[in-house]
Amino acid sequence: MHKSSWKSRRHGRRSQWQNLRYRQHSSNERCNTQAQQSPQDCDQDDGEVPSTSSSTAGTSSVPDLPGYYFDPEKNRYFRLLPGHNNCNPLTKESIQQKEMEHKRLQLLEEEDKQKKKITRMGFNASSLLQKNKLGFLSATSYCRLAHELRVSCMQRKKVQIHSSDPSALASDRFNLILADTNSDRLFTVNDVKVGGSKYGIISLHGLKTPTFRVHMHENLYFTNRKVNSVCWASLNHLDSHILPAFCISPESGGRAVMPTLVPEENLYLSVLNSVARLCLMGIAETPGCATLLPASLFVNSHPAGDRPGMLCSFRIPGAWSCAWSMNIQASNCFSTGLSRWVLVTNVVTGHRLSFGTSSDVLAQQFALMTPLLFNGCRSGEIFAIDIRCRNQGKNWKATRLFHDSAVTSVQILQEEQCLMASDMAGTIKLWDLRTTKCIKQYEGHVNEYALLPLHVHEEEGIVVAVGQDCYTRIWSLHDTHLLRTIPSPHPTSRTNIPSVAFSSRLGGFRGAPGLLMAVQQDLYYFPYS
Prior knowledge:
This protein has 529 residues and is of the alpha+beta class.
């Protein structure tokens, strides 16, 4: 009886492999037949230059068998193993990583050959100007096509970073960069090799052709907690302070306490330069701490033993996001998004408002003309808080929008009639705040679980976002067209996601427009001209 069952199992296994080989052979014949019968289609495809926004991964006619992987080079199937295995590392993760790396190297090779990434035949500056003079293009179409042409011709240039500690530049990796309002400085968060993070400010005044050189101003302060959010704060003047949120000892038991104020005259006596505000995430049993610090902390010319004092410090259970208010009705105020709480604090008076939520607040931004604070939650809800309210009644949420996944970034447009938001499902939507309806959606963004920022530049009419696949994508703000996909100069991984900053005036008032990309220890510049 055992012998007959063994023979039946062997016969079934043999028939399974015969069917598999037959299906593979028949699929190859279909591919060859289709290739011979459609030479005209191939000629038409060769006559068109594909857009840089289009995906290079085509649909394969080889049948997808559960538990097996078809290698087109060896023309055979291989069995997939669950998880990682040292003896046979053929897993879905390794296959996907190999395909992504192959695609990235192909795109980098095209860029190194200085091929202009034109989206269609006859799409160049001269033909665009001629069509505009003849009246064939409307003003809106001409502006969009001009932006598309400029974005497609951006070329990567490596920036030389000078610092008083060259060894640190070779070992510390960029984790985050953020340009100030005038785009003449970058605030940086670098991961230290021994563990933790440290902060610095890069001056962009030397970002000029033909040599792209910048200077890094560092300090001795660092933290061993993760930085979730960064924004610039303006207390005495535009971009005058930095607000880091540090994690401290668990003596407070995770309670949020009132701010501890230090008189302004006790600050460092030198002129306060631009500074930024950070927000760090604390662990479950360790509260966080938010502190305002002057940017002169990063200037190397100050005496070594002289350090500025703290203007405002308060403890929090753990922060996900932060935002500084530029609204005149909520001046000198900042907000912190916590787990199921929103804290709005006035750094001068010490007064604080707290709003309870049903989810973690992952993204925040204040409106400029109206006293509203917009919040994006892990539940997918986006709601606005009127910061003039002193109580939490039933209708304290002014506006409510909903995504299908956790909201990672919210950006209010200049006229404050629209809001753009991105989530962990890779969805980017433009909302009309008057009708609370989605009016546009931008396709192609990749995100599964990371807190990735979104950059909107209305002056240039573009939207920039870095996906979890380490690709930087640029869309047209007006028609949602994907203009450019920029690969990372380094191999893709979860720890090497680039951080970018785009501005129309990099380096100050007389600066040129462009994109800055920080990845690992390198800084790259993409001129937008």
